[in-house]
Every structure is written in C-alpha cells, then in structure tokens.
# Entry
Amino acid sequence: MHESGLWPGWPVVLRWLLAPLVAGVLLGVVWWLAAPGGRLYGDGSNYQEWLPRDLVFTGLAAVAAVVVVIFLVRAHVRFGFAARYLAAFVGSGIGSLLMWLTGTGLGQTAGSSRTDPSVPGSAFGLYTLSALALWPAIVAIVILALVTVLWSPPTRR
# Structure
C-alpha cells in the first residue's frame, strides 16, 4: 500500500498520534497552574471554584482541538488522510486523558492551593468527567465534515 501513495507512512502517523499526547501533558500542567484551586490561586475547598476549574479544562481542551483541526484541514488534500484522521482522533482522546491525569497527578503530588482534607472533593480534579470527551469530539466532528461535505479525491503531490 505504501507504494501507491495511499499510506502516508509510520513517521507521519506517529507524528499525528504523538503530537496530541505531548500537548495533553503540557496542557495538564497549564490546567493545574491556571485553574482555580490549582497551584497558583484559588481555594480548593470552596465549592464555587470547582465549576470554573472544570471550565478552564474544557477551554484548554477546545483550544487544543482547534489547533489539531487547523492542521487536519491543511493536510486534507494529501494522500493518506484516513490514517492521519484516525491517528489525530485517537491521539486527541488519549491527549485529553493525559491532560486530566497530569493535572490531577500534579495536584496530588505537588499540591494545590488551600485544599481542606475534611471537605470531600476539595482535592484538585475534574468533576465534570464528560469534559474529557470535548477534545476528541471536536476533532471527530471536523473529520466527519471533511469526509462527507468537503471530500474530494486527494491530489498527488
């Protein structure tokens, strides 16, 4: 299959898979630093800051999805787009999980701002777990749009 140009090759697929994974770890650190109740500010024991913490996570996930989508749209006209799409979708799902695990792991190991062990749920974490699906969902919707609405046979370059 590689000879016909339909398969972009393992380096290309791995790049599309690994880039969201690395971004997920970096965004997990940013989430832990920037979210209320994280490392820099806020009170983890104040339940009114738990929703903004989840919203920071979803905002970062949405930004990551838009970046992945921009690169997907730019690479749409090349051969091997199906493998890139699948790798970007799987990488986005795993990247979202890594973002969550990195942020909560840092909250447990390096601490967060003013958590109270006597208050259940005050530890740094994501309480709207459906937010994990946002990043891969945006990527999947754009993949669906590209394949069904904008699809044209790829040009050989």
